[in-house]
Write a structure and sequence with these properties.
289 residues, transmembrane transporter activity, mainly alpha, globular, two-stranded antiparallel sheet, amino-acid transport
């Protein structure tokens, strides 16, 4: 049981990091971002080149991934979503969904054309393993979990303790009220999208030694992120932490009891039941879109 609990928490930590960014963008901007997984891919590629080509120290590897995801996210927001907001007053959710699907397609094909389709990974970031009871945990998994939790802690402090973070909360709660209080919506929305992409990029970098970089690697993390977000409720940023660990534990126990091929079946069955019984999610409220 202890082995399963630890495995579930390690898995859930990455789900939280990915889903937090997805929930943030929907909560603030009402964008169902189906290109979120491609920023996970971008982070993995940046980490690979930082380690294998540029030979950067390990701490700098994650900084490069974070900054790269943040900048690319900001560029995409300013060049795509900012003009779309000015012209798309109705059907915003549908239009933004179609745009993110297009961005996903472009990023995947661009990666295939410029970086190739072969896997690019590293054998290990830090050699060795830690023994906990009968379980042996590689230091790479521990580092990945530590990076995820440290990132979430700093991100949470940013949201709660800074003026920009409070502005993000205000916009997610009431956009009109935030505008009346003098908050610049365009700046906050650009910042929000950039931060969301940064979180996904860090997740991709943290798991490089476990999941190598390749162009379509973002599909699975995207699906897991949506499982978490739907489970707790769209735009419910705080509950994402609970949902991420819950999905990680559910999948770990499902794999142990029924086999790896059943983990997605059980997770999806759970989500279907939640949607039938409580369409707004376990902790969600009806969204205004």
């Amino acid at each position: 049981m202890l082995d399963l609990l630890i495995g579930g928490l390690l898995r859930g930590g990455m789900y939280v990091l990915m889903a937090m960014g997805l929930s943030l963008v929907f909560g603030v901007m009402k964008i169902p971002n189906f290109a979120h997984g491609e920023f996970y891919m971008i982070g993995a590629y940046l980490a690979f080149y930082s380690i294998a080509v540029w030979s950067l120290p390990i701490p700098l590897v994650f900084i490069v991934a974070a900054v790269g995801g943040f900048i690319i996210g900001g560029i995409i927001e300013k060049t795509v979503f900012y003009p779309l907001r000015k012209r798309s007053k109705k059907d915003w959710v549908l239009n933004s969904f179609l745009v993110t699907a297009g961005i996903s397609f472009i990023l995947i094909n661009q990666a295939q054309a410029t970086l190739g389709v072969e896997y690019k990974g590293v054998k290990e970031i830090l050699a060795g393993a830690l023994k906990i009871g009968t379980m042996s945990l590689s230091y790479d998994r521990i580092i990945g979990f530590f990076i995820a939790m440290t990132t979430l802690a700093f991100f949470w402090l940013f949201l709660k303790r800074t003026k920009s973070g409070n502005a993000i909360w205000a916009v997610s709660e009431d956009e009109t009220g935030a505008l009346l209080m003098g908050i610049d919506l365009n700046k906050i929305q650009t910042l929000t999208f950039s931060l969301s992409c940064m979180l996904a990029s860090i997740a991709g970098a943290a798991l490089l030694s476990i999941i190598p970089a390749y162009p379509t690697m973002g599909v699975q993390p995207l699906m897991k992120s949506w499982l978490v977000v739907i489970l707790v409720g769209l735009g419910n940023i705080e509950a994402t932490i609970i949902g991420g660990f819950a999905v990680g534990l559910i999948e770990t126990y499902a794999t142990y009891n029924f086999g790896a091929s059943w983990q997605d079946v059980i997770s999806l069955t759970l989500i279907i039941m939640v949607l039938i019984l409580k369409p707004s999610g376990l902790f969600g409220k009806r969204q205004k879109v």
